[in-house]
Amino acid sequence: MNRPVDACELLPPVTETSERLPVGGLLALASAGFITLLTEAMPAGLLPQMSQGLEVSPPLIGQLVTLYALGSLLAAIPLVTLTQSWRRRPLLLIAVGGFAIVNSITALSSDYSLTLAARFCAGVFAGLLWALLAGYASRMVAPHLQGRAIAMAMLGAPVALSIGIPAGTLLGNMVGWRMSFAIMTLLTLGLVVWVLRQVPDFPGLRPQKRLPLRRVLALPGVRPVLFVTFTYVLGHNILYTYIAPFLGPAGLGGQIERVLLVFGLAALLSIWAIGLLIDRWLRALVLVSCLLFIASTLLLGLLPQGPTTIYVATVIWGLSFGGIPTLLQTALAKSAGEHADAAQSMLVTLWNLAIAGGGLGGAVLLQGPGVTSFPWVIGGLLLTALLVAVGAKRQGFAAYR
After folding, report:
1. Does domain 19-200 match CATH 3.40.50.720?
2. How far is CA 211 from CA 23, 89, 91, 138, 170, in A?
3. What is the pLDDT of residues 356-365, one digit of tens each?
4. What is the pTM assigned to this prediction?
């Protein structure tokens, strides 16, 4: 991700003085995540333009996000299983380079079916990439720096959601959605060079060290974290994917990029706070995140839909969501222990299942009861997530002080 903020600003300072983080390599990994998320969510911000350009309805453009998520959903676990013995950097380059190809196809295609196929392939590359990042970052540093290294490598996702996507929406409005995807291709090619220069290579796992997924899923705490991940991300993506039609009744249909920018700035503040507090207050932060999202849906559901309501609710939504990827990944890593890599592939799968569900569920709601149903459906999902997180006080979302 070409990063608008320095990762070091979002995390607490390292107290170790004898060793240094390989910042260049870690930021290359973060940039890979940035490009992945930006590629995934860009149709949400450019939905009206892509609908006109491909001559299909907005709900069908929403399925470009769904197909991307479906590719990741289907590919993450099988690809991780099949490639565990491969050397890591060539595998990383395959995943990154794939985005240059699929974004080029998206930029040039005038056929909706071809664009759908390209988006599915992009999701396949994304599923592989997300499964690689945490383990790759941990191998680049000494054990006492692994937590900070993983956090830095994973910063690409929240930064993309916070700043990159609003900026991409603004860019798309200025130069067109096709040029936006072409620019993504150029950024990806630059990242390939960056990875070759800054990211070291590592051998794959020996066959006897492969992790059994059934045993990982049975570990105490893993299932509650995965459940909260699914319900939270499902609720978020119903609103995020269809933010354009949701803003219409409030008279903000022409201010999509501004609303997303407000969301992004609030999310960045959340990321900074999470970086400072996560080691001591993980459980409390997860609960607060769920409560804030619920509060946002109540504002949207109970108050008149005007600009003030929308912007206040968006700030609260951004504060709730910005740090949630880091919180969930950290909770899962603590629960899974030495099996964290296998657990990560399951998280990637469920995350993308939730994105696909958000695209499909949002389309059903949009065509049925309409956007006024969004706050209540999303609020119900988040209330369920909150109750599960509250109940997982011993395993999954335990208090770490």
Report:
1. no
2. 29, 21, 19, 17, 43
3. 889 889 999 9
4. 0.74
As given in the structure block, the two tokens for residue 28 are 């290359």
**Which residues of the chain, if any, have pLDDT below 70?**
1-19, 143-144, 146-147, 161-162, 205, 208-211, 337-338, 341, 400-401
Question: Are 54 and 115 a contacting pair, CB within 8 Å?
Answer: yes
**Residue 7, SS3?**
helix
- How many residues would you count in the chain? 401
Tell me which fold the domain 212-401 belongs to: Growth Hormone; Chain: A; (1.20.1250)
Kindly write down the DSSP assignment for every residue of 114-150, as one continuous string.
HHHHHHHHHHHHHHHHHHHHHHHHHHTS-GGGHHHHH
DSSP conformation letters of 170-203: HHHHHH-HHHHHHHHHHHHHHHHHHHHHHSPP--
Among 199, 32, 203, which residue's Cα sits nearest to residue 129? 32
**CA-CA distance, 114 to 108, in Å (whole number)?**
10
> CATH 1.20.1250.20: which residues of the chain?
19-200, 212-401
Quote the CA–CA distance of 60 and 168 in Å, as a whole number.
Answer: 20
Q: Which of 312, 309, 321 is closest to 267 using CA atoms?
A: 321
Enter the DSSP assignment of 157.
Answer: H
